[in-house]
Amino acid sequence: MGGAGGPAGFYVGLGLALASSAFIGGSFILKKKGLLRLCRRGRARAGQGGHAYLQEWLWWTGLLCMGVGEAANFAAYAFAPATLVTPLGALSVLVSAVLSSTFLNEQLNVHGKIGCILSILGSTVMVIHAPQEEEVSSLESMAEKLKDPGFIIFAVCVLVSSLLLIFVAGPRYGQSNVLVYVLVCSAIGSLSVSCVKGLGIALKELFSGKPVLKEPLGWVLLVCLVICISVQINYLNKALDIFNTSVVTPVYYVLFTTAVMMCSAILFKEWQHMVLDNIIGTISGFLTIVSGIFLLHAFRDMPFTPDLLPLFLQQDRADLHTWRSADRHQSCQHQPLLPSEDKGSESAEEEEEEEGESV
User: Fold this and answer.
1) How far apart are CA 142 and CA 335, in angstroms?
2) From CA 320, how far away is CA 333, in angstroms rounded?
3) Considering the entire predicted model, what is its pTM?
4) How do residues 55-84 score in pLDDT, each as one tens digit?
5) How far is CA 345 from the centre of its chain?
6) Taking residues 189-203, what's their average pLDDT?
7) Which end of the chain, N or C, is less surrounded by CB atoms within 10 Å?
8) Residue 318: alpha-carbon gap to chain centroid
9) How far apart (Å, rounded) are the C-alpha atoms in residues 330 and 221?
10) Is the model more confident about 227 or about 111?
11) How close are the terminal C-alpha atoms of the chain, in Å?
């Protein structure tokens, strides 16, 4: 398993990616706990325009955890392949879901638990079969990669397709199709990850004493990163404002991760020296994570009851249902006899009364 810095660098990047998921997932819980404490005190809620959460230490702790997590994620790209770091971001969703059920008393149904297990299994498979990228240890080598014709064609295609989605498809289909704005976020996001990778390498060189601040490439990457992130945030907020979060989140994760894997394969040649079983393992692990995230989000609000199980999994209920059906069937068979006897007795009594009146 390679990457900048060799096997040791790979495991450093892996540890940073896992730590990032833990901090980011925990940050949501801390901020939510802080907001709930304010709600119990009767303070104005954030959704109603209140800013009392700025006086809540739990909210600030969550924000600090978020910052630490994002910094760890940023640093992970400098050590490990982007094809590994980006999919592992799904673990923050898993951490948030598990902690919510523990500390916020939010129900995690069977679908969510299966989704968590699948996410863990998929992440494990991806770590085992992570692709080996070419060594990119300096800004000079990064500049050579960025000049590659394959990456230039990819970047041009991303920019042209994003402009078409924003100015052509957006006004027509943006309000009705979730893919329009999410595709913009995902496509631009693949370029932002490349910028993060380059800036991570620049920081490593800076800490080693090299005059990185004099290199124009580092500043160009920083400006491009700010622009890409601004576009991502803008159109992701639009998608979340129009569509349900349970729909946007898994779709965005799948498209964003796929775009990043394509960009990394073209820019860093991560897949060029991989054997077939590692390629299959990486793709299988990614699809397993996708399945887990889909189950965790798409069925989050669906209550799971025994009535949803097939009959062969609820044998006792099936026996009870059969017994009740047989009981109803028997009662239906006897029902015609009882009214007929009643009718017969009633007609006999009427005849005797008529005979008595005639006499």
Assistant:
1) 87
2) 20
3) 0.69
4) 677 778 888 888 888 888 888 887 888 778
5) 73
6) 87
7) C
8) 37
9) 80
10) 227
11) 114
